[in-house]
Specification:
CATH architecture: 3-Layer(aba) Sandwich
Shape: globular
Order of helices and strands: EHHEEEHEHEE
Number of helices: 4
Distance between the termini: 21 Å
Structural class: alpha+beta
Helix content: 10-25%
Oligomer: single chain
Strand content: 25-35%
CATH superfamily: Gcn5-related N-acetyltransferase (GNAT)
CATH class: Alpha Beta
CATH topology: Aminopeptidase
Length: about 170
């Protein structure tokens, strides 16, 4: 596990780094469902509207490089209806320069430990089938495949399967 990193709640000042990390995944068409880069402005309302008591957005920083955001994680509602309030989707994005260094593992471990305090008992991940690294990460923490949605996403004329991984916490 990595040392010299810390997690904190995201702020509006973090949006440029959050967007840059997210946008770095768009060209691969293996991680993001967006076909084009997003803007900071497009996420302002998203972040302002987050209820940090139940669905936080976190950033991970390197203590070795001050004010260097190396990744982010968000808890999101699943399906948006009251009966599903104890279920959350996790999204994890790591700066490409910091991948394969344990940042994703650290964030996922923290999220799973923290989830019960948010009233979350079930955690889901929605992962494109070709995103082997993310599937490996989730599965290494005991997530199993709960569903496959064949060819539900289309990016530049290529269809993608979506795998839903899940775990009780």
């Amino acid at each position: 596990m990595l040392i010299n990193i810390q997690i904190r709640d995201a702020t509006l000042a973090d949006l440029p780094a959050i967007v840059a990390i997210y946008n770095s995944t768009v060209p691969s068409q293996q991680v993001s469902a967006d076909a084009e880069p997003i803007t900071v402005e497009s996420l302002e309302t998203w972040l302002k509207g987050r209820e940090t008591k139940t669905r936080p957005v976190w950033v991970i920083e390197s203590e070795a490089v001050p004010e260097c955001i190396v990744g982010w994680l968000s808890f999101s509602d699943f399906y948006g209806r009251p009966a599903y309030s104890a279920t959350a989707e996790l999204s994890i994005y790591i700066d490409e320069r910091w991948r394969q260094q344990g940042c994703g593992k650290f964030m996922l471990e923290c999220a799973l430990e923290y989830a019960p305090s948010l009233g979350i008992s079930t955690v889901l991940g929605f992962v494109f089938a070709q995103n082997i690294a993310s599937l490996k990460l989730f599965r290494s923490f005991g997530f199993s495949d709960w569903g496959v949605l064949p060819r539900v996403a289309k990016l530049n004329e290529t269809e993608h399967d979506l795998i839903i991984v899940g775990r009780r916490v």
